[in-house]
Write a structure and sequence with these properties.
alpha/beta, 8-stranded parallel barrel, about 30% helix, binds D-xylitol-5-phosphate, binds zinc ion
């Protein structure tokens, strides 16, 4: 099980990124919000481009924005492994997928708690990852929505039955208790559970252990 650390809600972002850089966390999950897709507006591109000064980790970028297409050129200059966009954006999803692929960046589609998991099925063979939102996008520190667990299991079955390699990432409210129910995922994003702990490495190790079959 891989772990992505979200620093949404951190007071001192450079400090948190430096601390995460010396752990064995797999990805830094960056939440970008445009004030339209979600209420908050954070992490504009001029701030985002500073992140590699503080960490060498691969980046997992979660775009909670209506128009992600125009951000891809700048993101491609960074150490980006995944760009995740939502199903209900204003840009054409196929164009977003195509542009990310052109840069050799892996693409994820995020499915919100109020969206059926089946809505991502038509894209499964064109994308690299599904980001299953286990909270309503917009805020850190929310409670995990338990209905996400059967959604993840269903998605895993679909991926297996179609012999695909699409990865599953789970984002929101992940903690030591629910991680054991998330073994069907490939990656877990964790914000508050890591940030609120005294020892980042210890928390990352424990989360991985809880989520491993
Ligand atoms: C929610 C974000 C998540 C969230 C994760 O909009 O996409 O990445 O910040 O943080 P926790 O683990 O605190 O829910
Ligand atoms: Zn996120």
């Amino acid at each position: 099980m891989k772990i992505g650390a979200s620093f949404l809600g951190a007071k001192n972002i450079p400090n948190v990124l430096k601390k995460l850089n010396v752990t064995n966390v797999d990805y830094i999950h960056i939440d970008v919000m445009d004030g339209k897709y979600v209420k908050k507006k954070i992490m504009p591109i001029n701030e985002l481009i500073n992140i590699p000064y503080y960490t060498r980790k691969r980046l997992d970028v979660h775009l909670m924005v209506l128009k992600p297409l125009k951000l891809i050129d700048d993101l491609a200059t960074l150490n980006v492994e995944f760009i995740n966009v939502h199903l209900d954006i204003k840009d054409n999803l196929d164009k977003v997928i195509e542009k990310c692929k052109k840069y050799g960046i892996k693409v994820g589609i995020a499915v919100n708690p109020n969206q059926e998991i089946e809505s991502v099925y038509p894209y499964l063979d064109k994308i690299d990852l599904v980001l299953v939102m286990s909270v309503v996008p917009g805020l850190p520190g929310q409670e995990f929505i338990p209905e996400s667990i059967p959604k993840i299991k269903k998605l895993r079955e679909e991926i297996t039955s179609r012999n695909l390699k699409t990865l599953i990432n789970v984002d929101g409210g992940v903690n030591f208790l629910n991680a054991k129910d998330l073994c069907d995922a490939d990656i877990l994003v964790s914000g508050s559970t890591i940030l609120k702990s005294d020892d980042f490495q210890d928390t990352i190790t424990k989360l991985r252990k809880c989520a491993t079959k």
